[in-house]
Design a protein that fits this description.
The chain is mainly β and 115 residues long. It contains three helices and nine strands, in the order αββαβαββββββ. The protein has a single domain (5-99), classed as Nucleic acid-binding proteins (OB fold (Dihydrolipoamide Acetyltransferase, E2P)). It has helices at residues 5-9, 39-42, 57-60; strands at 13-23, 32-37, 44-49, 64-68, 74-76, 79-81, 84-85, 87-89, 97-99. The chain is globular, with a radius of gyration of 14 Å.
């Protein structure tokens, strides 16, 4: 289906840096609770992410990610999830989720908006 460009511009997708990644022991499916720095204006937000098959906490902390931030908070296994971290369903949907994020670059900072 085709969408109007305005639908894309309505999505507030921002660069964030993962500050911490902890296993959510209450989740029915393995998941991490991520704390993500989204810059001065948006602050630090929490997200629940089912990416334990692909990443260890050590691979996540410090990583730049893309996060959708203008969605309502949701309770996920006892965690208030305030952002949706974006990823790719690899191998046609049969493989693990791989996170999307910008390369490390001096010009890209937490809070920068995708456009």
């Amino acid at each position: 289906d085709t969408v109007q460009i305005g639908a894309f511009h309505a999505l507030a997708i921002h660069v964030g840096r993962v500050l911490s990644a902890e296993v959510n022991a209450r989740a029915s499916r393995p998941a991490y609770v991520l704390r993500i720095d989204l810059g001065d204006e948006l602050g630090v937000r929490t997200s629940s992410a089912q990416i334990t098959d692909t990443y260890t906490p050590g691979l996540l902390v410090g990583r730049l990610v893309l996060a959708l931030v203008n969605i309502p908070p949701r309770r996920v296994a006892g965690v208030k999830s305030e952002a949706l971290v974006l990823g790719v369903y690899s191998q046609g949907g049969d493989g693990p989720v791989v996170l999307i994020g910008p390369d490390e670059h001096d010009h890209v900072r937490p809070g920068d908006r995708v456009g």
